[in-house]
Model the fold of this input.
Amino acid sequence: MRTARPLTQANKASSQDRRWLQAAASLAMRGRPLSRPNPAVGAIAVKDGRVIGRGWTAEGGRPHAEAVAIAEAGEAVRGSTVYVTLEPCAHESRRGPACASLLVEARPARVVIGCGDPDPRTNGRGIALLREAGITADHIPCAASRQSLAGFLSRETRGRPHVTLKLALSLDGCIATAAGESQWITGPEARAHTHMLRAMSDAILVGGGTLRADNPRLDVRLPGLAHCSPARWVLTRGDAPEGWNALAHPADLSPLLPSQYLLVEGGAQTAAAFLAADMVDRLAIYRAPIVIGGGKPGVADIGLASLAAAHGRWRIAERRMLGKDELCVYERRPCSPE
Done:
């Protein structure tokens, strides 16, 4: 039997750093999506192994996570380690000082950063300012940090929101019976989870056929979260009805900016259009333990030339039960190393 290699002091420090960065990423999710147009960032100040301050980006983007954590820590922040999911901003604005400047003034001994900031106003300058002030600044790439910032990173590097395609399917891949009945394929737990997805999205989109047939509300019906209902979009080449916005084609998502997260809810033609355009970053599939047989498929033809082209595109990121239904979340594999 193989024995585990004892952790060196360096390994211990790395393990602790990643644990605190993951905790900061969990905090960051509390700011999504209300922090828009700013990214949802999480920050934790730690001293002697104890949390002395924590924060996440507030509604409307201010105050930033670092400012909240520093304020909570008070004088104890001196000599501490501050963990932050995104490189502290380096540019001043009318709404407040740069986070790098706040950290320089607060004088922690060390700042650990989970993800660099691609915004050209920062992009390395935040780390440089900290180091110039004599503060140790370590960039430790963290998958949890990047995941918590997926919408911001997509907006900054690709000029479009991060797209999640949600499908509620039977075991045989149907979204409705042949006659069009679809309420309800999944149970109440899965439907409640869908509303949480809506609450964490800036915008939500359906196809013109779904809008005409169902006139969906697409709001958030969870206690205390009604104010988080996303902006409503419809995929159509015509005009959108009152209270809706129109998107002509999934290959051009720039009209949705500055939104960071888009949730696509259907129907089959819309799902196919986004998949065919390679504009889906995440699949959220709710599968009910029922067989419909001969029903309407969840995804229409996407023009796949061969079965080989379908393989290797997705990886499982999450799987869990929601009542009697199963949720499987898949993330798109990058075409080339990032």
Observations:
- The first strand starts at residue 42 and ends at 47.
- The two ends are 37 Å apart (CA to CA).
- Residues 1-10 have pLDDT under 50 and may be disordered.
